[in-house]
């Protein structure tokens, strides 16, 4: 499949991630960059809300009901906006010039992101070769098969032995809508949604944050999108590790949420959202971000802590200066006490215990970890020297500009968390890093949310110095002496200094889990298995239930062709029937219990694929019964290609003396 053929899926992915939310944003009274920047967050909210409502109402997950929920929600928002028009009138739009600059600035970012994705993934239908991908592909398949995308029931993937539990299903809901809207495969839809998040949602969200920081500064708006897709840790780091697609979506929404925080704390410059509207939208932003991934909520909390504290201290100081000293002290002291209590409460919540106890061995010394954070080179990635210079310049300037000092605190906090995870990771440090699985990759991905605005400030500073100190510019055309033009010139100079905006580094980050899979870890679905998928799609009935070993890539193969696997993931608790089949399926000809278990599950097929993934992991040994039949008679070979074989269980118990 060519990328040109996948273009409709990519456009539809971007439309689902932006369209519903922009409609709701306009209904709520937002305009321009405020509406478009907040659009993805509200789209995620609408898709996730629709999924829960439809599941509760017994409505099958499909395109039209989602659009219906969106339309009804927008209508309610319009009514509320009219009722509260005096309190929160619609926001004024930015000048048309600002809007055109923002639109034009998105184009190179979208194209640069597309280049990285195309070169990094290879073909648009190429499957991701990581442990987490097994769950995510299977989850999308489960959504399409079950007709439910609710985050409240997604976790067990339909396994009746596991109680329904929350799992952030926004990414899976959006990806399934792309499949339903275009008829493409799950693999193509997943890659299209990944591109749309990295190249469209993330730059849009970051545009809103920078717009709230610096106001109607077209120079800043012109350079923000390209800078956003240049950093490796995010978005590309999460496309090359895990793979963490829900995390990718959640963190891409955080800048917009942070922009709303600046509005709510009166720290935004020429605010485009509005303080009252931001306060009333707080629940929408929190729920939407949480449905994308709870990690994103905690990341937003860490970054938002600093503008929030500035607002609290300003309020306390104002009270103190006005003669109400004890009230001022109470406001500041009470806030700090509440924040400390919340941190203690969250760090001890039992629901986060499995997350807190995840262990990743330290791999750096603390000084080296700090150095990696300063060079934007976490987890052994190459240093982004040119970008890091801009970031460090931005840090110095942020200290000089009081309204931007919170960026320094946010940058220091992320560096602190990364250092704990990468170089220490002890039980006492997990009180800080536990909600991110104590994982340095997830924490490092937060850094660009702060680093991009700092780099923008650095570009604006250099552009201003060019305007003031280069005499030749006085003889240049007036258009080339504008702040926007000079900022663009700085970005053009960054192109060779960063070796093409570090596209090679970012491509290499993705290739490792698509094209250049680590031979030591093996691959889930190799080329022979990919070739077998077409045959598998032809011979397997649409309602087939297939017994498989999830460690041999079969779960992904079945998910991509939308067939139900008995074992859709490599590490879920299984029911009694599933466990028995995992241990004894090959004995179907002589063991009546196998037949009983298979009948209860509706399983009539067995798929054997190439076992090449994580052979060192002891969990791969949990499926000894899924192998070549030990006694002939029960299975019929339906299709094969080398070691890849599909059997039909059509004469179960045929050799058993008890049957």
TrEMBL record:
Pfam families: DUF6541 (PF20176). The chain crosses the membrane at residues 35-54, 66-88, 100-122, 177-210, 217-238, 298-316, 328-346, 382-399, 406-424, 444-466, 478-497. It comes from the Bacteria. Keywords: Membrane, Transmembrane, Transmembrane helix. The keyword Ion transport does not apply. This is 4-amino-4-deoxy-L-arabinose transferase. It comes from Lentzea xinjiangensis.
């Amino acid at each position: 499949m060519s990328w040109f053929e996948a273009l409709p899926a990519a456009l539809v992915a971007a439309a689902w991630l932006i369209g519903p939310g922009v409609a709701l944003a306009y209904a709520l009274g937002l305009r321009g960059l405020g509406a478009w920047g907040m659009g993805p967050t509200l789209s995620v909210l609408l898709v996730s809300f629709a999924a829960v409502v439809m599941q509760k109402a017994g409505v099958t997950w499909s395109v039209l009901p989602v659009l219906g929920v969106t339309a009804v929600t927008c209508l309610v928002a319009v009514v509320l906006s009219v009722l509260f028009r005096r309190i929160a009138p619609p926001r004024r739009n930015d000048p048309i010039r600002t809007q055109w600059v923002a639109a034009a600035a998105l184009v190179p970012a979208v194209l640069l992101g597309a280049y990285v994705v195309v070169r990094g993934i290879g073909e648009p239908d190429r499957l991701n070769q990581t442990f987490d991908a097994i769950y995510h592909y299977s989850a999308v398949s489960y959504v399409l098969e079950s007709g439910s995308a609710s985050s409240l029931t997604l976790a067990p993937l339909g396994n009746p032995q596991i109680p329904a539990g929350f799992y952030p299903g926004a990414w899976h809901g959006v990806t399934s809508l792309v499949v339903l809207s275009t008829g493409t495969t799950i693999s193509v839809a997943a890659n299209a949604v990944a591109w749309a998040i990295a190249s469209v949602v993330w730059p849009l969200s970051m545009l809103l944050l920078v717009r709230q920081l610096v106001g109607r500064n077209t120079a800043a708006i012109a350079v923000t999108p390209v800078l956003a897709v240049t950093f490796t840790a995010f978005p590309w780091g999460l496309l090359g590790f895990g793979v963490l697609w829900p995390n990718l979506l959640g963190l891409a929404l955080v800048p917009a949420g942070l922009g709303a925080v600046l509005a709510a704390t009166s720290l935004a410059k020429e605010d485009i959202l509005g303080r009252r509207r931001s306060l009333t939208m707080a629940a929408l932003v929190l729920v939407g971000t949480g449905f994308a991934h709870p990690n994103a909520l905690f990341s937003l909390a860490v970054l938002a802590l600093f503008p929030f504290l500035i607002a609290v201290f300003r309020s306390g100081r104002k009270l103190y200066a006005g003669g109400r000293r004890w009230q001022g002290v109470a406001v500041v002291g009470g806030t700090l006490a509440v924040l400390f209590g919340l941190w203690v409460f969250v760090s001890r919540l039992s629901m986060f215990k499995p997350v807190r106890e995840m262990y990743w061995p330290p791999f750096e010394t603390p000084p080296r970890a700090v150095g990696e954070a300063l060079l934007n080179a976490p987890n052994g990635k190459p240093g982004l020297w040119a970008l890091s210079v801009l970031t460090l310049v931005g840090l110095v300037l942020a200290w000089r500009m009081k309204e931007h000092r919170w960026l320094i605190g946010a940058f220091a906090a992320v560096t602190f968390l990364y250092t704990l995870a990468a170089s220490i990771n002890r039980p006492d440090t997990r009180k800080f890093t536990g909600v991110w699985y104590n994982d340095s990759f997830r924490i490092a991905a937060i850094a660009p949310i702060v680093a991009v605005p700092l780099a923008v400030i650095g570009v604006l500073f250099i552009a201003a110095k060019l305007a003031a100190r280069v005499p030749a510019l006085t003889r240049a055309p007036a258009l080339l002496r504008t702040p926007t033009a000079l900022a663009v010139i700085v970005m053009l100079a960054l192109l060779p200094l960063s070796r093409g905006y570090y596209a090679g580094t970012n491509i290499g980050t993705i290739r490792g889990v698509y094209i250049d899979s680590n031979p030591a870890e093996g691959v889930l679905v190799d080329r022979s298995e990919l070739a077998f998928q077409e045959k598998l799609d032809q011979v397997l009935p649409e309602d087939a239930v297939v017994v498989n070993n999830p460690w041999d890539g079969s779960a992904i193969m079945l998910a991509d062709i939308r067939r139900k696997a008995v074992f859709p993931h490599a590490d879920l608790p299984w029911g009694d029937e599933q466990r028995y089949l995992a241990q004894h399926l090959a004995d179907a000809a002589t063991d009546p219990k196998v037949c009983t278990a298979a009948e209860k599950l509706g399983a009539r097929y067995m798929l054997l694929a190439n076992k090449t993934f994580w052979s060192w992991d002891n969990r791969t040994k949990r499926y000894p019964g899924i192998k070549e039949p030990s006694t002939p008679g029960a299975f019929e070979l339906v299709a094969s290609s080398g070691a890849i074989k599909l059997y039909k269980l059509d004469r179960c118990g045929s050799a058993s003396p008890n049957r």
